[in-house]
Write a sequence for this structure.
């Protein structure tokens, strides 16, 4: 909600979808009780991000392995552009069936 350019997307999906994911595509276990067994991804569109850092400023979560960092952090775009472009494209996987949401 904080991103002024709406370039952050979130999806929960069946783990079988990951068989065709790019090598650098990141996911984690979906922790909602109703999403048991599903995977969860938060992805930024690298070429549409303006670098305003609002998302990092408001993120309340710390990096568990490196406590001086947050769970999300700003990084130079050029080294990540190609891989994150592929990850963003992959996120066009089907939307969750909203009829199952409560
Ligand atoms: S840094 Fe990028 S992703 Fe984060 S809020 Fe700004 S435009 Fe959105």
């Amino acid at each position: 909600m904080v991103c002024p350019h709406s370039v952050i997307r979130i999806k929960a999906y069946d783990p079988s979808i990951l068989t065709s994911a790019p090598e650098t595509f990141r996911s984690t276990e979906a922790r909602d009780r109703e999403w048991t067994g599903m995977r969860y991804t938060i992805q930024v569109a690298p070429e549409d991000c303006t670098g305003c850092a609002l998302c990092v400023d408001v993120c309340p979560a710390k990096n568990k392995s490196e406590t001086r960092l947050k769970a999300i952090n700003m990084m130079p775009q050029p080294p990540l552009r190609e891989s994150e472009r592929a990850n963003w494209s992959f996120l066009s996987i089907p939307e969750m069936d909203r009829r199952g949401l409560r």
The two ends are 20 Å apart (CA to CA). The beta strands are 8-13, 28-29, 39-44.
